[in-house]
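User: My advisor, Dr. K., asked me to get a structural model of this assembly before our group meeting. I'm new to this, so sorry if the format is off. These are the inputs:
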Amino acid sequence: MEPSDLKDEL
Amino acid sequence: MNIFRFAGDMTHLISILVLLLKIYATKSCSGISLKTQELYALVFLTRYLDLFTDFISVYNTIMKLVFIASSLAVVCCMRMHRVVRRSYDKDLDTFRHYFLILASFVLALLVNEKFTFQEIFWAFSIYLEALAILPQLVLLQRSGNVDNLTGQYVFFLGAYRAFYILNWIYRYFTEQHFSRWIACVSGLVQTVLYADFFYYYFISWKNNAKMQLPA
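Assistant: The format is fine. Below is the predicted structure of the whole assembly, which you can bring to the meeting.
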């Protein structure tokens, strides 16, 4: 998964 | 992680703790919309589908588990607790929240970052969260008086999203490929929905009076 795809926000 | 996002997550957590405090301390859920709580549980369950597939950080995983567990705990308590459920304002909490679910899902099918199962449900959870407070605000409008803990609950819930807007502005200027326009637009709509409530909350705080919403 590209980093922008990872939903790092809650 | 930046200070705005951390502050947003903490105010979100505080809002849930205030809600749980109100329900357990007063053994009453009067003034609380069960429909809003059910919508929030759905928001977290559909947003954190990646809980077991993508590890971001220990903080991220723990907070996701806390949000899912606490929102389900509130719904179960309001539906099943022998004493609490008697104080539920059933005839005031009549917002047709199924329409919010349907509208959010249709919008998520049309407007998403990628047409995949996880992305569609993520977009759905973002749209639904923006609208989830409506049954609660309508219930407060109808009941007229807002008790302190309920007022603080809604206030912290609004503050959380306002902090997130600062977080998105900060990330936009500090990160190259940061583009969360779905969350930004939806978060903006959500915060505007609280504006009315914030105004009356501030007035009551300034006059040190009990909060009243115009019927």
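One thing worth pointing out at the meeting: Chain A touches chain B through eight residues (CB under 8 Å).

User: Perfect, thanks a lot.
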